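ok posting inputs for the magnesium ion job
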Amino acid sequence: MKTRLVFSDLDGTLTHGVELGPVFFDSISLLEKQNIPLVIVTGRSKSWAHFLLTHVPYLKHIISEGGGNLSWRDEEGALHDKLLVDAREPMRLIEATNKLYESFEDLELSADSFGRETDRAIELGWLKSDPAREKQIKDFFDKENVSWSESSVHLNYWCGDISKYTAVSYFLKAHTDCSEDECLYFGDALNDESMFKHFPLSVGVSNIKDVLDKFKFKPSVILEGAENEGPYGVYNYLSNHLK
Ligand SMILES: [Mg+2]
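and the output
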């Protein structure tokens, strides 16, 4: 079936390491020629969604905070947001975060947690530097009924029913006439698993190999080789797939 809409993760998928380079814009040009929208589905905060919508005109909708928020730019250029979780859950998240600070005084939330509404993030570098503490933190979340997931850069945690797939599914119904089998998803990390589980066509860029054995549900296509890392894999796959 012809692809009418492309969804993609940001970090490690549209960026190479942390670099948002020219190849990202090459993919955008490719999609633009065929009039196929790109919707980024990222674990980054709502503020990042606003930045991308403002400075990359081809992007019209972005799902951020791992599925907690949908942001879009209207015809006049004004930005809008929709919370995709029950409004009480962000309040419960504030309480859980306060409790976490009481238990771990040196806790390092990511700098972009400041702009987050439906989740918070802990830097993976800090978290992984002490495996015993990492386990305590994850146990704390499980005990408090707080969900968590690892992206390529953060441990994100949130309250309520939030996932990339739940948000994408809502978006497809509310904002498009596309079915899932007319779409494509690119990802590279464990926070993409809900999309790999449900989407008929999902593609893992080759750097996914570092975490591949941790997945219960893998992408339907797994790219290989250094030439298919992150945005290069996205560009190469789109070039072949959209012919
Ligand atoms: Mg990623």
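notes: The pocket of magnesium ion is lined by residues 9, 11-13, 151-152, 188-189 (CB under 6 Å). The two ends are 13 Å apart (CA to CA).
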